[in-house]
Amino acid sequence: MSTGPHPTAGALRHVLGHLLTPLLMCLGMGLAYLGAFHAPQPHDLRVDVVGSGPAAQVLAQTLQDKGAGALDVRTVPDRATAATALRRQDSFGAYIPGDHPELLVASASSDTSAMAVEKVFTEVAARQDAPLKVTDLAPTASGDPTGQGVFFLLVAVSIGAYASVAVIGAAGAALPMRIRALLAAGTSLVVSLIGTLFAGPVFHIVDHGLAGVWALSWLYAAGILLIGIGLHTYLRRWTTLGVMVLFVMLNFTSSGGIYRPELQPGFFGSLHAFWNGAGLVEGIRGHVYLDGHALGGNVLVLVLWLLAGVVLVTLAGRTEARRNALAAAEAKRAEAKRAEAEEEMEEAVAV
């Protein structure tokens, strides 16, 4: 009677081992998304009060004190200064007090931040028994009324890129690394073109600057693909989880596409300064709506992630070359041992 391990038990252990990956994905997605989005609250949200007299100073100080850290209120001398600050994302709302109060916002910078500011100053105007006029100095395109279309473009391009990592890394594992890198470059080009079509002709998320949207999307997608393919050499079956952590869990939540850092917990706000999703979202916003504000910095972020991918692929290629050389040497030693054993056997037979 056989006493060896039952095949069902081995298959069950195999399945349970592979189930660990989706369960960790579930845990990570819940922690990331709920941690970042479940209770948005403003903190140090910069707003301006337009005016230089005592009344403006008192209003600004009152709002600062009542906000208890939610707002960072300053006064600016005139409407033009306030408008410039809005377009440079130095503030997210500017209140002009008076008999007919007006609030300036730039919804293309962040629709949710503009809504938070509008809520604050609607209450201020109501205490003065005056209706509040809201003027949007940087509205989004007609196809993006919520201002979140750029975020969903980020999602589409990200999924196209990191899903392709699994195909190139696994199905193309037998290919030389340079061929996989070329496949990554070509795939990122296709993914970025699809994203640009969605952003422009299909859904009209943006109404101009499509060439820049494509260039930013290509840099972003190429960085993800190269990093993912490089990681596959080291992580193997854990690559999908690793890529999802980098480019979904931490990426979408810190991009600023739904809530900017001023409405999020500090961890995600800190990632916003250098993560590649934020580079794409803020880069497109600056390029399309904010007169190129901070575009150079966001392009630099995307280029650095792309260079990280190039370095990782290069290292992975060298690692695979060493592994192949060791495997070839081991195979050669095994073949030599077999030949020696066969020769000894022949000599024994001859004797």
Please tell me about this protein's structure.
The structure is a single chain. 68% of the residues lie in helices and 7% in strands. The protein has helices at 7-37, 54-67, 79-87, 111-127, 149-171, 177-202, 210-235, 239-254, 266-271, 276-288, 295-350, and strands at residues 45-50, 71-76, 94-96, 102-105, 133-136. It has a five-stranded mixed β-sheet with strand order 2-1-3-4-5, sandwiched between helices. Helix 5 runs parallel beside helix 7, helix 6 (177-202) packs antiparallel against helix 7 (210-235) and helix 7 runs antiparallel to helix 8 (239-254). The radius of gyration is 28 Å and the shape is elongated. The protein starts with 6 loop residues before the first helix and ends with a helix.
Task: Give me some keywords for this one.
351 residues, alpha/beta, 5-stranded mixed beta sheet, 68% helix
Mean of all residue-level pLDDT scores? 91
Helical percentage = 55-70%
Query: What low-confidence regions span 5 or more consecutive residues with pLDDT below 50?
Result: none
Query: Strand portion, in percent?
Result: 5-15%
Structural class, by secondary structure, is: alpha/beta
SSE string: HEHEHEEHEHHHHHHH
* Number of DSSP strand runs: 5
User: Ends: how far apart?
Assistant: 42 Å
Structural shape: elongated
Largest sheet: 5 strands, mixed
Tally of helical runs: 11
Computed over alpha carbons, the radius of gyration is: 28 Å
* Strands side by side in the biggest sheet: 2-1-3-4-5
